[in-house]
């Protein structure tokens, strides 16, 4: 007689479990959350896109697609890039652009709702479900490569850059044209760094433990703040990332360790790079005197509107009115404080006495 109530209790509990499972799998909200727990992984975490714009590259004839790593709250930096070249202006050049973001529910500059409104207006946000954090840049970087390989396979080039990087958009076609011979090959073109050592100083921002990276030297890699590759290489790098041990310094991991495993050739185009943001400030002054600047790429140095100002002034003074070639480079004539912004290494910069 005492077993019968226990049987009923066990049956009731079993029925309750089935009802709970039914509710979990049928509820739209829960279904959305369960989508995180899937076989689709980004490195060592379950992954899905919080916001995706999978139709950005739906048309053919695309020369290149920008994948721009941007912090969640950097609304003004993204605005500067859009003001310089909006979506329609990019399309006329055969280009597309998306900004890569993580999730930051506690950000003090914007909200998830505001970000979704931004995306509704511009249609250029790709957001992953990982949290925004400095040591999560590898997730963001791999997400961008994964997205480009999956949703922009018809583009000739993938242009990866950070949102605090300035690019002379009017010179980009010349840069891409110089790389067309390599389109059918596995390549990454950027500012190549060689024989860089892990920093073992615990007080340094770039401190790397022996457990994180045991070797005494990094493989050759290119700076992650601007490089050019192809959708095919992007897809291969993203796939390979899931097979390797996570490393938080994203450009070393992706353009160094992964590229080496996949035998991707690194091409050095550092001659087009300004490693000092003050050189770009000098270029702005030169534009106004109708003097050209040989630098195509450089850091904004914290000047949020620099992307717009650089391209606007170049167009006004050097496209509408042809600029003269300057006989000296900015690093030979620009009087400014040196600030090395590469962040990933220590390239040699010589001092010039004026």
TrEMBL record:
Name of one Pfam family that matches: Galactosyl_T
Superkingdom, natural source: Eukaryota
Keywords, sorted A to Z: Glycoprotein, Glycosyltransferase, Golgi apparatus, Membrane, Signal, Signal-anchor, Transferase, Transmembrane, Transmembrane helix
Membrane topology classification: Single-pass type II membrane protein
GO MF annotation terms: hexosyltransferase activity
Subcellular location: Golgi apparatus membrane
An example Gene Ontology biological process: protein O-linked glycosylation
Enzyme class of the recorded protein, top EC level: transferase
Keyword Phosphoprotein: no
Main location group: Golgi
GO cellular-component term (any): Golgi membrane
Signal peptide: 1-27
EC annotation from Swiss-Prot or TrEMBL: 2.4.1.-
Family designation: Belongs to the glycosyltransferase 31 family.
Name of protein: Hexosyltransferase
Organism: Dendroctonus ponderosae (Mountain pine beetle)
Lineage of producing organism: Eukaryota, Metazoa, Ecdysozoa, Arthropoda, Hexapoda
């Amino acid at each position: 007689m005492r077993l019968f109530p226990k049987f009923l209790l066990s049956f009731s509990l079993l029925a309750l479990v089935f009802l709970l499972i039914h509710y979990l799998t049928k509820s739209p909200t829960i279904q959305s959350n369960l989508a995180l727990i899937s076989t689709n992984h980004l490195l060592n975490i379950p992954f899905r896109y919080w916001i995706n714009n999978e139709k950005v590259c739906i048309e053919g004839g695309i020369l290149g697609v920008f994948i721009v790593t941007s912090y969640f709250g950097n609304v003004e930096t993204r605005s500067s890039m859009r003001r310089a070249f909006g979506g329609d202006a990019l399309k006329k050049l055969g280009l597309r652009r998306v900004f890569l973001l993580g999730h930051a529910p506690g950000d003090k500059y914007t909200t998830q709702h505001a970000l979704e409104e931004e995306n509704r207006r511009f249609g250029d946000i790709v957001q992953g479900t990982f949290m925004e954090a400095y040591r999560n840049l590898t997730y963001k970087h791999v997400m961008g490569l994964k997205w480009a390989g999956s949703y922009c396979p018809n583009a000739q080039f993938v242009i990866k850059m950070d949102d605090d990087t300035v690019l002379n958009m009017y010179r980009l076609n010349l840069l891409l044209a110089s790389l067309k011979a390599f389109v059918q090959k596995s390549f990454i073109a950027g500012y190549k760094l060689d024989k860089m050592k892990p920093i073992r100083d615990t007080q340094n921002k770039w401190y790397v433990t022996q457990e994180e990276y045991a070797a005494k030297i990094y493989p050759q890699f290119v700076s992650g703040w601007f490089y050019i590759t192809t959708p095919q290489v992007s897809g291969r790098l993203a796939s390979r990332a899931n097979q390797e041990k996570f490393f938080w310094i994203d450009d070393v991991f992706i353009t160094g360790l992964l590229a080496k495993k996949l035998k991707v050739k690194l091409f050095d185009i550092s001659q087009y790079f300004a490693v000092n943001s003050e050189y770009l400030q000098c270029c702005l002054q030169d534009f106004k005197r109708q003097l050209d600047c040989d630098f195509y790429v450089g850091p904004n140095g914290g000047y949020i509107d620099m992307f717009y100002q650089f391209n606007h002034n170049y167009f006004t003074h050097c496209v509408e009115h042809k600029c003269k070639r300057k006989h000296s480079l900015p690093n030979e004539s620009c009087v400014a404080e040196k600030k090395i912004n590469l962040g990933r290494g220590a390239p040699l910069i010589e001092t010039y006495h004026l």
